[in-house]
From TrEMBL:
Protein name: LssY C-terminal domain-containing protein
Pfam families according to UniProt: LssY_C, VTT_dom
Its membrane topology: Multi-pass membrane protein
Membrane-spanning ranges: 34-54, 126-150, 170-188, 197-216
InterPro entries per UniProt: DedA_domain (IPR051311), LssY-like-C_dom (IPR025902), VTT_dom (IPR032816)
Originating species: Enterovibrio norvegicus
Length: 425
């Protein structure tokens, strides 16, 4: 179906008045993009040729048969009435723009070449501007087909943008619904429009928040990293969302050993539940709040939510907490290596988080203080453990990319029999 001649026919019938009501060009254009990625240029040439000839034949049909053919087509397919009416308006007011950009305007594209012929637009003018429009309209789908074949992950900025759109889809839907409601209310002159729209937006965002935490947060497929890693190869930033548009939070602890859970509980830390790793419903959430151990929101390190989280005893507004991720297998010692992000919750703030607007704890930007407190606690309570510091990155200041400042050092903690101090400075 998607050989060169098939691509030609698909693009041709999509452009030809009448058949284009039933034949969409998008699959053929995407297929041409896929072929282009494999080095096959003929597919692109054939869809462009098919679109060009379809436009030309539609133009000649309109020029020769004109209004009688238009009336028969509208009688046969009443859904074209709106497209014809809109097209007549565009041709009368913005003829050149209509010829150039009609393929970006949805159903209007079905009838523009035919209407150009009906209104006796010169063939040269039609050919020049409709050809530009063909390049724009077909080119966008060929481009997307090429990217899909290549994999958007090969284009970091595009991959980040697509991830952001997916992550924010429910908030975007709520925002669009609010805008539509506001427009309808404005058109029909609703009384107390602002309070109504505000209440709708608030209700929509609360619904998005509830669904994020209690329905969707644990819907992910996770795998334990098994690749070999070294402190030098690790990423020392975590994000409050899967897309890197959010301000980073610092990863400032390394642990080498089977699991940091035993160490944390021995130090008196309380293991928290998290929305991604535990099935938490509303009653569970209220119970955790009453126990002064609210669930820890997810941070994403290399696209994965934390494997576990802990806090020191505190209250609902202020507490020290740490998240742990298994990073892989230490290259030298053949033991699991874990990365941790320790910080201090200091009150609440309204913030963007993982695609929603929500209320979360405000993080004290001095993450080194909590790192050093943990080192001191380990040295005092578990002297058999070894601790050292590794200069993972240059010193960081609070800026548009970071919500914290740090000297760039990472605390390295090992089981007694494991020695990593030669990698620490």
């Amino acid at each position: 179906m998607f050989e060169s001649f098939g691509l030609f026919l698909g693009a041709f019938f999509d452009a030809l008045i009448g058949p284009n009501l039933f034949v969409p060009a998008e699959p053929f254009l995407l297929a041409a993009g896929y072929q282009l990625y494999d080095g096959i240029v003929s597919g692109v040439l054939m869809v462009l040729l098919g679109g060009f000839l379809g436009d030309q034949l539609s133009y000649l049909t309109g020029r020769k048969f004109g209004k009688p053919a238009q009336q028969k087509l509208m009688k046969w397919q009443p859904k074209t009435r709106r497209a014809f009416a809109r097209c007549r308006h565009l041709m009368a007011t913005k003829g050149t723009a209509a010829l150039t950009f009609s393929r970006l305007l949805g159903p209007v594209a079905w009838v523009v070449p035919f209407m150009a012929g009906t209104q006796k637009i010169s063939w040269a003018r039609f050919t020049i501007f409709s050809s530009i429009g063909l390049m724009l309209g077909a080119g966008q789908f060929i481009f997307w087909g090429y990217l899909l074949a290549a994999g958007v992950e090969q284009y970091p900025y595009l991959d980040a943008f697509m991830t952001m759109l997916v992550e924010h889809k429910y908030s975007l839907m709520a925002t669009v619904a609010t805008i539509v409601l506001a427009w309808v209310g404005y058109v029909y002159r609703w009384k107390k429009l602002l309070p109504k729209v505000s209440a709708f937006f608030l209700a929509a965002m609360l619904t998005v928040n509830y669904s994020h935490y209690f329905w969707f947060a644990d819907n992910f497929i996770d795998t334990t990293p098994t690749t070999t890693v070294t402190p030098l190869s690790l990423n020392y930033k975590a994000y409050p969302g899967k897309s890197p548009i959010f301000d980073a939070q610092g990863v400032n602890v390394l642990f080498v050993g089977e699991t940091p859970r035993t160490m944390m509980t021995s130090l008196g830390w309380i293991e928290n539940q998290t929305f991604s790793r535990n099935d938490i419903d509303w009653n569970d959430y209220v119970g955790l709040l009453k126990g002064q151990t609210p669930p820890v929101s997810d941070l994403f390190w290399n696209g994965r939510p934390q494997d576990m989280a802990f806090q020191l005893p505190g209250d609902l507004l202020k507490r020290a907490h740490i998240r742990w991720w298994q990073a892989g297998i230490d290259e030298r010692l053949n033991q699991p290596m874990w990365v941790g992000a320790i910080s201090y919750d200091d009150g609440l703030t309204l913030t963007m988080y993982s695609g929603i607007i929500t209320v979360l704890h405000s993080i004290d930007p001095n993450i080194d203080a909590e790192r050093d407190k943990l080192a001191s606690l380990i040295n005092t309570e578990l002297p058999e453990m070894t601790t050292a510091y590794y200069q993972a990155m240059p010193a960081l200041a609070v800026d548009e990319d970071h919500d914290y400042y740090s000297d760039g050092r990472v605390l390295v903690v090992n089981d007694p029999q494991l020695v990593l101090t030669h990698q620490a400075h």
